[in-house]
Amino acid sequence: MRWTPSRLPRCRAQNRTPTQPARTASSYSSASTLALDGQDVATVLDRKPDQHGTLQPTRVIGTVRTIRNQKRRSFVEIGDGSTSRSLQALLEPHQAEGLGTGTLVALIGTWQRSPPGKEQDYELQVEELNVIGPADAEKYPLQKKFHSTEYLRTIPHLRLRTPLNALLSRLKSECDYQLANYFRDHGFIRLQPPIITSSDCEGAGEVFTVSSNPDARHIGRADGSSLDGPDQFFREPKYLTVSSQLHLEAYMNEHTKVWTISPTFRADKSDTARHVSEFWMLEAEMRAEALSDIMTTVEDMIKHLLEGLRATNLVQELVTLKRRDGVKDVEIGQQVASLISERWAGLTERPWPSVTYSEAMEALKYATKSGAAEFKHFPTWQRGLQAEHERYVAKIFGQGSPVFVTEYPQLIKPFYMLPSNRESWYGSDKRATVACFDLLLPDGCEVVGGSLREHRLDYLSHAVQKCGLKDGKIDDGSVGLEARRSSENSNREWYLDLRRYGSVPHGGFGMGFDRLLGYLTGVPNIKDVITWPRYHGRCDC
Question: Angle 261-405-308 (CA atoms, 0-180°, nearest 5)?
């Protein structure tokens, strides 16, 4: 007989044989013998009796979050990833025998109004209970108590069952949907760039080397030099990507606008709330001659995202979610709700201001001299903006909104950025700037970085030489592809080919997807936003 979902046995008494005993909480039933098509908790919680007050039988599948046994009744809170709320179910004492926190159950009963004064307007009067997945309540790591974020990071495979992390998973899914719609509606093509690459896009050298040799601890450096010999699998060192930008640029001749969202890797040992070794980056490239066009796209994209999220129940869940248990729970919840509301308002209710790097630096130096602010790192032109500087600039210029900082010094930015003065050669002027921007969030950090790209072969080749990435000899194409590929500098030659064989003015940006989510949700540490955080010293599961 052909298998279809409708042929799965239903979990009701009339479907059993006369000799088959009724299932109780203490009797385990394999999931393969149960119909797993019950409603999720969110759907059940939103149900109301019809206009005649008729209550229909309800079937729900979820995990036991808490259980409270009394003499005549047992009260069980059931939850799943569909909502951060819990469903209250009423059981007879014998039904709750052996039932504990963490057990996955299927409940069938009547959804009816609760007695006056109860927190939940409706509750499930359970008629039948089946244990789908048992759990040892005493050993279950997620007990009904406050768990620190540090503890939860040690069990990422179970942490995702908590209401906050389940909500974050749904939020990420909705963000992906909204962003894909935005880019599709604005003529962008979604692409899948490679994870294994030949070069370090940012030039910082913080890359993970890929090797098929389990004994190879150091196969090569980001500059292409070998330490212990070449990796035999790829013939030369290859790395996990730090950015998809260079590969997205390859599409500019054929497509006007492209984008992707993909994992990115940095071998950065920084132990801060905003650094991890693996994270997701949204990147886009587009034909453009003005930096303002790219900045407008970034602002429009994020505002569109928030507008789409507000049309769902996710925002309400964020501001009402219990962040912890205890006497300060209400106070903490109110603080987080207020913070989230302020951040969302700052992102959506007014245009985002823009200042130059020079203006930001002047404000920082004035604040230092006047005593208006104290910084651990004194602001200087060539050192860039530290995190404390970014927070101050966002506060002063943004006034609750994000702020674009533009025209950074050329010598502290990657080689591929277009000079603000189009006739300026790389390194010819220590005060030279590039057509770029960073988007700074209030009380946060840089979340988006973008620039116009150098599309001229001679200027780009000169920048590559000055950065020490190759010998600097400009090849007009007469040498031939094979000769260039065989050279020790071939990891950059393919990028220069994009300028040799027809180029177009263009630019793009990269947005830290997880950083933005942390800001929107009030989660201060990126390690608690990413489901499976990888950082220096830790890579669990």
Answer: 40
Angstrom distance (rounded) from CA 165 to CA 167: 5
CA distances from 71 to 75, 116, 138, 259 (A): 11, 21, 22, 60
The fraction of the chain above a pLDDT of 70, given in percent, is 81
Angle at which helices 163-185 and 513-521 cross, to 10°: 120
Q: What does 371-440 look like in DSSP terms, one character per residue?
A: TS---SS---GGG---HHHHHHHIIIIITTS-EEEE--BGGGS-TTBPBSSTTPPTTS-TT-BBSEEEEE
Tokens 């279950």 found at: 140
Mean pLDDT by 10 residues, the chain (541 residues): 37 38 40 62 83 72 92 92 93 90 93 80 91 92 88 93 94 97 98 89 74 62 49 80 94 95 93 91 97 98 97 91 58 82 94 97 96 94 93 93 97 94 88 96 91 96 81 38 42 89 96 96 94 92 88
How many angstroms from the chain centroid is the CA of residue 540? 18
Q: Is the pTM of this model over 0.70?
A: yes
List CB contacts of 64: < 8 A, sequence separation 6 or more: 76, 77, 78, 99, 100, 101, 102, 103, 104, 105
Question: What is the SS3 assignment for 104?
Answer: strand
CB 97 within 8 A of CB 24: yes
Cβ atoms 131, 29 nearer than 8 A: yes
Tell me the torsion sign for CA atoms 280, 499, 207, 379.
negative
Rounded to whole angstroms, how far apart are CA atoms 265 and 208?
7
Both tokens assigned to 139: 């050993």
Q: What is the DSSP secondary-structure string of 253-286?
A: TT-SEEEEEEEEE------STT--SEEEEEEEEE
Structure tokens at 487: 């050279």
Phi then psi dihedrals of residue 226, to 5 deg:
-95, 145
pLDDT in tens, 465-489: 888 765 433 343 433 333 334 344 5
The amino acid occupying position 179 is: L
Counts for the chain of helices (H) and strands (E), in that order: 14, 16
